[in-house]
Known about the structure:
The structure holds two protein chains of two kinds. By secondary structure, chain A is mostly helical. Chain A is 75% helix and 0% strand. Chain A has one domain (58-292). Chain B has one domain: F1FO ATP Synthase (Up-down Bundle). Helices cover 88% and strands 0% of the residues of chain B. The longest helix of chain B has 37 residues, at 5-41. Chain A binds chain B through residues 6, 9, 12-13, 28-30, 115, 217, 220-221, 224-225, 228, 275-276, 278-279, 282-283, and chain B through 2, 4, 6-7, 10, 51, 54-55, 58, 61-62, 65-66, 68-69, 72, 75-76.
Amino acid sequence: MMLAPLLLLVALQEPAHQPAPSPATEQHAAPAEHGAAAAEAEHGGGHDPATVMMHHVTDQKPFYGVYSKHLVFLLVPAAFVLLFVRLAISSYKHGGVPTGIAAGVESLVLFVRDDIAETNIGHHDAHKFTSLLCSFFFFILFAALLGLLPFSATSTGNLSVTLALATISFFAQQWAGISKFGFVHHFQNLVPPGLPVWLLPIMIPVEILSMFTKPFALMVRLFANMLAGHMVITALLLLIPLLASITTAFGVAVIPVSIGLALFIMILEVLVAFIQAYIFTLLTAIFIGMYAHPAH
Amino acid sequence: MPTDPKALAYFAAGIGAGLTIMGGAAGIGRLAAAAMEGIARQPNAAGDIRGAMIVAAGLIEGVTFFSLIVTILLAIK
């Protein structure tokens, strides 16, 4: 049981297209994992289980002529979001009552507007940000759900993608304050009025730092959540070849356990997709609300 | 006795992951206990309490993942 993460880390050390363990791995690895890695290598040459299974977690470059796999699965969810929303809008043209996809999309949009935007940003400022928050919500949700399909990848499990999302969130937060109060007044608002003067040298750096740590936390939270679930599934499935390298009977015995646990984590991932889309959107809304309604 | 820096990094990553999970589990455990108590006292407020609990759990989880990433970096770099 404890060897599985080690095996996974050995797999992470090797680039995806490298068939044999690299010399550095062989030199430095402890004897136990050295044995595991060697067993992996002789199992199937270029198609050892660790490499094959890691396609679900790590990026592949190049991917069928495209720059990288995560780029494809960044664009596919975006296209799905556009498609679903267009379908939903077209069903409103015939009458007022939404049917089919539109009913589902409408309930989520209403949830984002009423429960996320308006309660945290306030009634007057919320309408400017509802479309942005809906975009965040649907994109993160679709990216995570599509990433659960076979042969796909979760693009939000890539730090660059979440960096881009967090950067958009950062500019939205600052714009909320700047567009409402003007550039100078927005930065004066960072420090609550009536503060003793001797606290200012502490408060100003802290507030400027917190301006950047908020989107940074958003970035790392989404990235780590999306990566962690897939890594756990991979580690659970890698238990089978690991135990099979000791004795085949062990490997066969662990198959139902491994598949069952992996399936459970898969179901959990569906829940995590919704929760992470909700949390990213909600925290963006809370931070926007903080800058739109500073302490006074 | 392993003096290889890579072995020590694996060791540190394992210990770090364990400590991280202990901290995260303690935080989310206390949070869930308090939320359940709140729901038991005020079943009407169950929806609000659940929403606030999910947000707080997300924040705790985020901090936990920070340190998990540090441990993963220790192990694979």
